[in-house]
C-alpha cells in the first residue's frame, strides 16, 4: 500500500512563508502526478496545485497563483509546496495527493491521499 506523509505545517503570521513536504513510500512515485489540496473548517476540500510526473507541467488555483510553488524530487520521492506571502484565508488542513491513472493530472482525479498537515495563518 502506498503511503503519503505530509510535514511542514505550522502557525505563521500573515505575510510569512511555509514549505510543506510530502514523502511517498511507493517505488512508483516517479510516475505519479502529485497535488496539494486543502480544506478549511466547514468547507469542501479544494484544489491548490498539481504537477505532472516528469514536472513538465504544473497548475495552480487562482487564489494561490504567484504565491505558491509546487515542486518534486523523483530521486528523494518527495513533493513540496512552497507557500509565500501567506494570508489568513490560506488557513486549512493541507493534503498531499497522488494519482497514476492516465489523464489523472488533467482531470485532477487524485486517488491517493496523505492524512494532512495543519497550516494556520494569523492576522
What layout of secondary structure does this protein have?
Layout: E1 4-7, E2 10-13, E3 18-24, E4 33-39, E5 46-51, E6 58-60, E7 68-73, E8 78-83, E9 92-99, H1 104-107, E10 112-113, E11 117-122
Parallel strand pairs: 2-11
Antiparallel strand pairs: 1-3, 3-8, 4-5, 4-9, 5-6, 7-8, 9-10, 9-11
Structural class: mainly beta
The amount of beta strand, in percent, is over 45%
Shape: globular
State the low-pLDDT regions, or none: none
End-to-end CA span: 40 Å
Q: How is the quaternary structure best described?
A: single chain
Number of beta-strand segments: 11
Q: What is the element string, with H for helices and E for strands?
A: EEEEEEEEEHEE
Cα Rg: 13 Å
Largest sheet: 7 strands, mixed
Number of helices: 1
Helix residue percentage? under 10%
**Average predicted local confidence, pLDDT:** 94
Summarize the structure in words:
The chain has one helix spanning 104-107; strands at residues 4-7, 10-13, 18-24, 33-39, 46-51, 58-60, 68-73, 78-83, 92-99, 112-113, 117-122. With 123 residues, it is mainly beta. The strands form 2 sheets. Strands 2, 4, 5, 6, 9, 10 and 11 form a 7-stranded mixed sheet that branches. A hairpin with a 6-residue loop joins strand 5 (46-51) and strand 6. The termini are far apart.
Short description:
By secondary structure, this protein is mainly β. The protein has one helix at residues 104-107, and strands at 4-7, 10-13, 18-24, 33-39, 46-51, 58-60, 68-73, 78-83, 92-99, 112-113, 117-122. It is globular, with a radius of gyration of 13 Å.
Amino acid at each position: 500500500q502506498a503511503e503519503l506523509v505530509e510535514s511542514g505545517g505550522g502557525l505563521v503570521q500573515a505575510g510569512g512563508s511555509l514549505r510543506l513536504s510530502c514523502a511517498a513510500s511507493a517505488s512508483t512515485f516517479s510516475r505519479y502526478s502529485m497535488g496539494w489540496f486543502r480544506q478549511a473548517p466547514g468547507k469542501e476540500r479544494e484544489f491548490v496545485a498539481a504537477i505532472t510526473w516528469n514536472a513538465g507541467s504544473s497548475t495552480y488555483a487562482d487564489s494561490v497563483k504567484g504565491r505558491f510553488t509546487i515542486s518534486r524530487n523523483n530521486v528523494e520521492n518527495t513533493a513540496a509546496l512552497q507557500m509565500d506571502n501567506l494570508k489568513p484565508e490560506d488557513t486549512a488542513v493541507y493534503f498531499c495527493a497522488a494519482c497514476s491513472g492516465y489523464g489523472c493530472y488533467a482531470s485532477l482525479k487524485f486517488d491517493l491521499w496523505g492524512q494532512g498537515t495543519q497550516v494556520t495563518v494569523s492576522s
